[in-house]
Here is the input.
Amino acid sequence: MTSEAPIALALGDPAGIGPEIIAEAWTQRARTAPAGGAPHPFFVVGGPAVLRAAVEARGLDCPIVPIAEPSEALFAFSAGLPVMAGLDAPYTPGSPSEAGARLALASLTYATRFALGHSAAALVTAPIAKAELAKVGFANPGQTEFLADACRLPYRDAVMMLAGPSLRTVPLTVHCALAEVPGLLTSELIAHKARIVAKGLTRDFGIERPRLAVAGLNPHAGEGGKFGDEEARIIEPAIRELQDEGLDVTGPVPGDALFTSRVRGTYDAALCMYHDQALIPLKALEFDEGVNVTLGLPIIRTSPDHGTAFDIAGKGIADPGAMIAAIRMAAECAAARARA
Here is the structure.
């Protein structure tokens, strides 16, 4: 892995806010720089006409510089936003279309190939509309699963982590009904994903000995079995197994205490039992800077932790903070891997 290549950005659904916040990220590129460093050059895979229209609609000073190869972004980045030509669609903010979905899928596919082929140091994905992509043959539940397939890994090896300046959370079960969660949780699943998280924090974030906190499932972490036995039967055995392997793991911690300011300073990532247990605190604390990071892949992938926001697309009010944070984190992770 090299950090010298540019970062590839997948456009996302062109009818969403992706194009305008990508362009805004280039105009505020100083904010995408890792602490004490310079901005890492990035480029967009496809959509030059979409991006020009988004720039005009938002009133930005952001020249679009066509490129033919990822390496050209290293030289073009100072002059404008480098964009690979050849893939495009009409710009219809707020009105998703089949043409836009095809562009989103093509952009994601080629950007992933660039990352896998090491011509991109990392991959940043703008938000997609899964329902629209399904209409053009996208068979995966989401971009994370698409990337796992592209990397020839089982879905469970691609672990979603939500990260902000003061908190990192990992949902151990993701897109499923809350009623299904107890049946999906196993000691083996918890231990497997915890190992991936620990390795990812070391490899991509430079944390030599990661501290993991594991949440309880039930109120008060079960309160000795009064409110459920999943803690004693499933969660505690996984924690003991991980501790026996030498990992710094604590828990199960009651969910209502895990995210208090005092407790947040005692761990590097919180492993949560279900989607909202992980995402509600992250979005409450870090909404404008929340980043979705995929751990366990041979490539680096980050994404803003929000959706397409079709309702505000093209209105010039979308906040680019999460996209800027996603690009900055991708650059930081690429540098960490290069040092390893």
